[in-house]
Amino acid sequence: MRFGVSTFVTDEGIGPAELGRALEERGLAALYVAEHTHIPVKRESPWPGGDKLPRWYYRTLDPFVALTAAAVVTERLEVATGIALVVQRDPIVLAKEVASLDQVSGGRAVLGVGAGWNREEMRNHGTDPRTRMRLLEERVRAVKALWTRDEAEFHGEFVDFDPVFLYPKPVQSPHPPVMLGGAGPTTFDRVVAFGDGWMPIYGRGTEALADQIADLRERAGRRVPVTVFGVPPEAAVVAELEAAGVDQVLFNLKTLPEAETLRELDLLAGLL
């Protein structure tokens, strides 16, 4: 089993380069960073994590800038989005960004994706929340086409472009893994249809995780990689997830200044 962290990299916490270096020094294998372009002041969408939305949600650095900073000071660390809000991103630009990150990191990029929960935020990007799941699928499929074809084209309901050249191509073959977030009733449909792995959040629809993973892999006809977010740093929980068939756990790392973050990472390293 592999171990990493998921976090919000902001202007008020440890810098991404310092964080990446500290993770690799302590034997952690992955850094997954969250994305929010902004948070509307007037918000009606309920936050799945509770009543009050933490301030770090609206102070995040751009994920690909942060991950590039972490990548250039490390050699082995997996650099990933957790999650990239694809329904708020142009797919051609997204394909370019992830392929560039994969080049800069020497093949260590992972694209974790989701459709998001903040309807006001996505509306500001011109996205209709009612069709965001269909939009998510089309944009992911378009990105994969851009990564893998010399003359890529895509013609769908939301994404439409004639043959184009887009370089660089990713280092990884056939492309960086696309991990699907969520644990809703149709999540597995999306993972099987156009994803390369599953990324649920611990405790949100994961109460029967072993059965869920077995069902997903049976439906897919392959061993779908599973990464679990927000795992408590407890040996018993880690053992439970390993027995369920989880490949990687991500401990939630609070957004803190550098000295406090390093102390938290030392505690995690002790657990490992």
UniProtKB/TrEMBL annotation:
Does Oxidoreductase appear among the keywords? yes
Q: Which Gene3D superfamilies match?
A: Luciferase-like domain
Keyword Flavoprotein assigned: yes
Q: Pinpoint the Luciferase-like domain residues.
A: 18-228
Q: Note the InterPro entries from the entry.
A: Lucif-like_OxRdtase_Rv2161c, Luciferase-like_dom, Luciferase-like_sf, SsuD_RutA_monooxygenase
One matching Pfam family: Bac_luciferase
> What NCBIfam families does this protein's entry cite?
F420_Rv2161c (TIGR03619)
| PANTHER family in UniProt | ALKANESULFONATE MONOOXYGENASE, ALKANESULFONATE MONOOXYGENASE-RELATED
The name this protein carries in UniProt is LLM class F420-dependent oxidoreductase
Species classification: Bacteria, Bacillati, Actinomycetota, Actinomycetes, Streptosporangiales
